[in-house]
Each structure stands twice: as structure tokens, then as C-alpha cells.
Design a protein that fits this description.
Radius of gyration: 24 Å
Shape: rod-shaped
Largest sheet: none
Helix content: over 70%
Structural class: mainly alpha
Distance between the termini: 48 Å
Amino acid sequence: MIDLKLAVQALAVAGLVALSGASIATENAKERQAGRSANQDAKQEARKEKVDCRQENNKSNAECRQDKRGAKQDGREEKRDIKR
């Protein structure tokens, strides 16, 4: 009888440990997805800014390219902040 009680308790503990691990994995997945979204949004915005830069500001391609790089870097920093 004691062995059965011990087995049930061990099974309950194992279940709780498994559930807590799944919760951590789910949270990590959400953070990764949010990071990817932030990164993709930054890339799209950088592309748009480069096109606008060349059309409106009459800058050279090299100058606009530097602006685009800066915008993408901002997106990478946002992604890092999300993952912390």
C-alpha cells in the first residue's frame, strides 16, 4: 500500500516538472517569435525609408544605404531587448 502511494506521488511530481518545462519552452517560443517580428518589421521599414530617402531627400544611394543600415540596427537592438 505504501509503494502505491509513493508511486502516485512520484507520478504527480513528474507531471508537475513536465508542465513547468513546457511552460518555459512556450514562453521562449513566444519571445523568439516576437523577436522575429520586430526584426522583420525593422527590415520592411528600412526598405521603405531607403526608397523615400532617395525620392524625397535627393541623397546619394550610399547616404541612403547608411540610413537603412541604421534602421536595421535599431530593429536588431529591439529584438535583443525582447529576448532579455
